[in-house]
Design a protein that fits this description.
It comes from Elysia chlorotica (Eastern emerald elysia). InterPro entries: Schlafen (IPR029684), Schlafen_AlbA_2_dom (IPR007421), Schlafen_AlbA_2_dom_sf (IPR038461). 32% of the residues lie in helices and 13% in strands. By secondary structure, the chain is an alpha/beta fold. The protein contains eight helices and eight strands; from the N terminus they run αββαββαβααβββααα. Helix 2 links the parallel strand 2 and strand 3. The longest helix is centred in the middle third of the chain and has 17 residues. Helix 7 runs antiparallel to helix 8. It starts with a helix and ends with a helix. The chain has two domains: 238 residues, no CATH class; 35 residues. The structure holds zinc ion. The site of zinc ion has 5 residues, from helix 5.
Length: 289
């Protein structure tokens, strides 16, 4: 399949290939779930957006888990990764029908979710793309053109400013509007929503001051206060103690030259800031282990 050859390997696997501009319905993704890729059949970003019938109870495990845990996991490896909404667990591409207003809703929801993490996730660390899913009998020659339709041209700019209801599983005005459109026979395009967390780059200017004193990537907890880590295609929740030892391990692996430089700066700071001596000394001792 042609578009898979162009598939961008996002989430840390930098590739010179350009990202796919469309998917074909019911085809399989060219990779499985792994350290960098997660498939979701739905678009419930946060726990409060999960419909009640999908949530865990005292007796049953939830049938659906929010996308948030996976994004948190990709942040905490520092390696990044992509969640594909509209792709089943086995990699089958089904897509999610979305009007422009519903796409806006997803973008606002994501921004809101990232602001609820601790620490909050700045906009330069994530990205969202809506990749159209075309019927597999679409003639090859028409695919690029169909995929490049900009649905922003089809909507009312004033209406787009209407506030969306974000932290709820209830229908928003954009969902009601979509229902009216289906009922009137309007064909609404399906998409795979690709939400990417970018790999942590300790030397990027935008990241300065966000990490710790060595500028290792920050560890985030999600909107439920949980700290998720991704290992292969699975998520783990670590205790604070485990995170502390992981961070020490990463710190030891950082380039010695950076540690030396930081220690010289810390030594200089110690002389200038006697009140904060203890804190800075502890940090310096960790770095020299
Ligand atoms: Zn909405």
């Amino acid at each position: 399949m042609a578009q898979s050859e162009k598939m961008e390997q996002q989430g840390g696997n930098l590739s010179k290939q350009s990202p796919s501009t469309y998917y074909l319905k019911f085809q399989k993704m060219p990779f499985e779930e792994d350290l960098f890729h997660e498939f979701k059949g739905h678009k419930s970003l946060s726990t409060d957006q999960l419909p009640k019938w999908t949530q865990a109870t005292k007796w049953e495990r939830g049938s659906r888990k929010a996308v948030s845990r996976n994004l948190c996991g990709f942040l905490n490896t520092g390696l990044g990764g992509t969640v594909y909404c509209g792709v089943l667990d086995d990699g089958s591409i089904v897509g999610l029908k979305l009007t422009q207003y519903q796409k806006d809703h997803v973008v606002y929801s994501l921004r809101d979710l990232m602001s609820r993490y601790s620490p909050p996730v700045p906009a330069h660390r994530y990205r969202v793309r809506f990749v159209p899913v075309l019927s597999s009998d679409t003639p090859e020659k028409d695919r690029e053109e169909l995929a490049s339709v900009d649905t922003r041209d089809l909507v009312d700019e004033e209406e787009r400013k209407t506030e969306h209801q974000l932290r709820t599983a209830h229908y928003c005005w954009c969902d009601k509007d979509a229902k009216v459109q289906y009922a009137n026979g309007v064909i609404v395009t399906s998409y795979v929503i690709e939400i990417s967390i970018l790999a942590w780059n300790p030397d990027a200017a935008a990241n300065m001051g966000l990490g710790d004193f060595l500028n290792l990537h920050p560890i985030h907890s999600d909107e439920d206060g949980k700290i998720n880590f991704r290992r292969q295609a699975r998520l783990f929740q670590y205790s604070l103690q485990e995170i502390a030892s992981l961070t020490r391990f990463e710190a030891r692996n950082r380039r010695v030259t950076i540690i030396d430089r930081m220690q010289r700066e810390i030594a200089a700071l110690k002389q200038r800031l006697p009140a904060q001596n203890n804190q800075v000394r502890n940090a310096a001792d960790e770095g020299s282990q």
